[in-house]
UniProtKB/TrEMBL annotation:
It comes from the Bacteria. Residues 468-880 form the PcRGLX/YetA-like C-terminal alpha/alpha toroid domain. The lineage of its organism: Bacteria, Bacillati, Actinomycetota, Actinomycetes, Bifidobacteriales. It holds the Pfam family PcRGLX_3rd. Residues 14-71 form the PcRGLX/YetA-like N-terminal RIFT barrel domain. It comes from Bifidobacterium callimiconis. This is Tat pathway signal sequence domain protein. Residues 96-449 form the PcRGLX/YetA-like central beta-sandwich domain. Coiled coil: none annotated.
Length: 903
């Protein structure tokens, strides 16, 4: 498998990437026996640590995850399976000692000590014999704005300290050790809030620790507002205050300050001392011979005199020492740095206002320095740092994932009612419950030089944290192996293909711009996109119920991941991965009665009363997980292994059917409910190779197979969450048949056939696609009148499954109809597609690009479904597409402007 660096930005450190293998090519024990070999383009063998992430049904390896040093891999590398060889890694082997209480990770230059009884993340992090950080602990602040006057306070703020309850060595290989912590935050009175899952990665000979921090909201939305969240640690400080420094990344370059700056009025300090100090050198004016020592420890003979020393010592007694620095990115377009002295009753003063910082920061002294960085620092505002005690022997640093300097997070809904008919909120009752939502953030701490890193060192570090290198195979490789089902590679051999590819590119470009233009940022928003646009306001309908945040409605995840797979583009990877992270955490419940379900689109991400499996389904995230090996998604997939049990609590059709007349305990539409469960079970089947999940899938297939019209039966069915059996009840489809195929079902079902050994399944899928494009009289005839009242709306939604049917049956008539409706849905005889127009002085923009969406139903739902179906359809029936735009006009002639329903 040939690999290339996606970013090519030179960011170093350990990186994890995925590999895919043909069925039967690699045995299950390949990772355990070190049979994967990695080499760079110079032919050098590179140490690699591997694990299996997915299996084929025969037990052979489908996907594996590999960790290696990006600096050694370089621009390109090659990974092979060598049945006879083993990867040479003994020289890199980490050593772990665990006596039941103390865990010691000996990682070459670095040593990490963890004491279970301390209930903290670690006791010490030592690099080259120097203590870099110690006593790391999660911290939390909650604010209650409704404490009540009778309690003597209107607003109460409560501090919590993280208590680690369980520590697991999730990986202990030769290159990296991954420590998984679970616990919760506890206040002084014993109140527990916001459980957490934190992963810490220790790399061999690495100077840094990487953290993945997940918290779950379990508070009272009326009283538990999030005011501060982060991790706090201590670091030794030593030497004179003028040898103590801070450095922060700004909009451009860095901001460097000393805690006691040698620029004075009386007595005047020689300028060369101040210049050396500002250059980050150690200053030793007290040396009797007049020598200074630079950062590398070399004596500098440009002598400082004893009088210089006297001046410095004199002035130190008569100048402020800056003991505390604060950084907060409080919006997507503003950060501020402030500082204060150690006195309690004094103010902070402002150091700098800026727009966007990537977030690298450091502090140091004669004892050495510490660097910190948060991934997506400004995008996931309000982030920040507090460095305090800088003039003492022990500094305290807090990495704020939610800075207490910012406004607290209010989890309440925006209204006391639901607005189903006016604003499409699902139901008329309010269903906004934040209890169980989660959020994951990443940050790193690292050892720096004495006394402070220079610009390049800090900027390189923050880049490596924010934009780690990602290694990939070519789109052609993934396409050949059928990774994640069927999708097409870009081809521009005809005028029509050129037009189609242009539209796909324009759609991505539009949303890429909108994310930044509309500031879709913030801890709980970043990654998501909006649902519907309001051209009259030149604004997305952010305040209109079910038209606001998209929450993976009509699977933009699949669109973007397929767009990435076929192109390998970094910008699409970033958009898709951020959407993936958001949907999997904020839009989904991770504890409580809705655990494993997600919330449909709304003004608040958790605001809709519809809690459904389609939002949480594993299919949204499979590409990201298998390409990156991100362990957080293993937690999420495990949560979904038995998500069907939540249907007992939240029946997807519970408001539509009389409970008393039911035979089974709940309902499931073939799509998106059962198809989403199939996505979850399929993912767990791959990961575990357990027959439990295969049996769940096969049970449903067998039940559908026994129905008169198979997948064309229903779509509504009764469902028993305890046995996973489905029961035919009628041929109705609550909400419309299109819901069975517009939320990922075709993509799930097409990929599922490679994991389920059922010869009837491909035909069942093909027949559903075929029926969608049959003339109505043929539908009535083939169903013996059972589907006489059925409509098949939004035929372009069914393009992918229709194209599958056309290929399966070799049916040119179906293929022609598929292209007819798909092309007409966007072209409408004018070839406008996703072209934009430029407006002036509207939407708070001097120039605003809008897509002139005249049809009110053209929104993110439309864009995601059109693009996804175009990408898939091209792979099945490219040869049946018109070759020119004139042929496309001829094909779609006679279709009116309303393409919502089949002609």
């Amino acid at each position: 498998m040939k690999l290339h660096a996606m970013r090519g930005n030179g960011s170093g450190g350990y990186t994890t990437f995925g590999s895919m293998w043909k069925r039967g090519e690699v045995p299950a024990d390949a990772a355990a026996n070190n049979h994967f070999t990695l080499s760079n383009d110079r032919g050098e063998t590179i140490p690699v640590q591997s694990r299996i992430t997915a299996y084929w049904p025969d037990g052979s390896v489908k996907w594996a995850a590999h960790t290696a040093d990006a600096g050694l891999m370089g621009a390109s590398a090659e990974l092979i399976y060598d049945a006879d060889g083993t990867t040479a890694v003994p020289a890199y082997a980490e050593r772990i000692q665990d006596d039941g209480d103390v865990i010691t990770i000996d990682a070459g230059r670095a040593t990490v000590t963890i004491r279970r009884s301390a209930k903290r993340l670690f006791e010490s992090f030592v690099v080259d014999g120097r203590v870099v950080a110690s006593d790391a602990v999660p911290v939390l602040e909650l604010e209650d704005p409704n404490a009540g006057e009778h309690e003597g306070e209107l607003v109460r703020r409560t501090a919590f300290t993280g208590r680690v309850d369980d520590i697991t060595l999730e990986a202990s290989g030769p290159l990296v050790t991954v420590v998984r912590y679970t616990g919760t935050h506890v206040s002084d009175d014993g109140t527990e809030r916001l459980p957490f899952i934190i992963r810490m990665t220790v790399g061999y000979d690495a100077e840094r620790l990487d953290f993945q921090h997940t918290f779950i909201y379990d508070g009272d939305e009326n009283h538990d507002f999030l005011k501060g969240l982060g991790v706090r640690f201590e670091s030794p400080m030593a030497g004179k205050p003028y040898n103590r420094h801070v450095r922060f990344e700004g909009d451009h370059g860095t901001i460097h300050e000393c805690l006691a700056q040698l620029l004075t009025w009386k007595p005047v300090i020689p300028s060369h001392l101040y210049e050396d100090q500002q250059a980050g050198k150690l200053i030793h004016p007290s040396d009797e011979a007049g020598e200074t020592i630079d950062a590398s420890g070399v004596l500098n003979q440009t002598a400082n005199s004893d009088s210089d020393n006297e001046k410095v010592e004199t002035v130190l007694k008569d100048m402020p020492w800056w003991d505390e620095y604060h950084v907060v990115q409080d919006s997507p377009s503003h950060f501020v740095i402030s500082k204060k002295t150690a006195d309690e009753q004094v103010c902070r003063i402002t150091t700098l206002h800026g727009r966007r910082t990537r977030g690298g920061a450091s502090f140091g002294s004669e004892a050495g320095s510490v660097m910190v960085a948060v991934k997506d620092f400004w995008q996931k505002y309000p982030t920040g740092y507090t460095f305090s005690g800088l003039t003492t022997d022990t500094a305290t640093a807090t990495v704020w994932l939610w800075s207490p300097d910012a406004q607290s997070m209010d989890f309440r809904h925006y209204a006391q009612d639901g607005y189903q008919w006016a604003y499409y909120e699902g139901y008329d009752y309010k269903g906004a419950d934040p209890d169980g939502i989660a959020c994951t953030n990443e940050f790193s701490i690292a050892a720096g030089p004495t006394p402070i890193p220079d610009d390049k060192t800090l900027l390189d570090f923050s880049l490596a944290v924010d934009k780690p290198e990602q290694y990939l195979a070519s789109p052609e490789f993934y396409h050949e192996l059928g990774a994640f089902g069927r999708w097409s590679l870009p081809v521009r051999d005809t005028e029509m293909e050129n037009w189609l590819e242009d539209q796909l590119d324009k759609a991505v470009a539009f949303y890429r711009k909108e994310i930044d233009l509309r500031n879709w940022y913030g801890m709980f928003d970043y990654g998501d996109i909006m649902h519907s646009y309001d051209s009259a306001r030149h604004q997305w309908r952010y305040d209109m119920g079910g038209f606001a945040w998209d929450n993976a409605e009509l699977v933009p995840t699949y669109w973007l991941w397929y767009a990435f797979l076929r192109s390998g583009r970094e910008d699409i990877f970033d958009i898709a991965s951020k959407l993936c992270r958001h949907v999997s955490e904020v839009d989904v419940y991770h504890l409580g009665k809705y655990k494993g379900l997600g919330s449909r689109h709304n003004v608040r991400h958790w605001g809709c009363p519809c809690k459904e499996a389609r939002i949480s389904m594993a299919g949204h995230h499979r590409v990201y997980y298998y390409l990156t090996g991100d362990r957080r998604f293993e937690d999420l997939f495990d949560e979904l292994g038995d998500v069907e049990k939540t249907f007992l609590e939240k029946d997807p059709l519970g408001d539509w059917y009389d409970k008393e007349s039911m035979v089974y305990l709940a309902h499931a539409r073939s799509g998106p409910d059962w198809s989403s469960l199939c996505s979850d079970w399929m993912t767990q089947l791959e990961r575990t190779n357990s027959p439990e999940f295969l049996n769940k899938i096969q049970t449903g297939i067998d039940d559908i197979k026994a129905m008169d019209l198979q997948l064309n039966s229903g779509v509504d069915m009764e469902f028993d969450p305890n046995t996973c059996h489905l029961r035919f009840i009628n041929n109705e489809s609550t909400g419309g048949v299109h819901l069975a195929i517009c939320q990922g079902a075709p993509e799930v079902w097409i990929e599922m056939k490679d994991l389920v050994d059922d010869p009837d399944w491909p035909k069942m899928v093909a027949d559903f696609g075929r029926f969608y494009f049959l003339p109505h009289e043929e539908v009535v005839k083939e169903s013996n009148g059972a589907l006489a009242d059925r409509a098949y709306p939004f035929p372009f939604f069914a393009s992918a499954i229709g194209a599958y049917a056309a290929e399966y049956y070799g049916d040119k008539t179906i293929a022609r109809k598929v292209w007819k409706y798909l092309i007409h849905a966007l072209m409408d005889g004018r070839h406008t597609g996703f072209d934009t127009v430029t407006l002036h002085n509207v939407g708070n923009q001097a120039e605003l690009e809008e897509i002139p969406w005249e049809n009110p139903w053209v929104k993110t739902n439309f864009v995601a479904q059109w693009c996804l179906n175009a990408i898939v359809t091209l792979d099945f029936i490219r040869g049946d597409a018109p070759r020119t735009l004139a042929e496309a006009d001829e094909l779609t002639e006679g279709l009116g402007p309303d393409t919502q329903r089949k002609s």
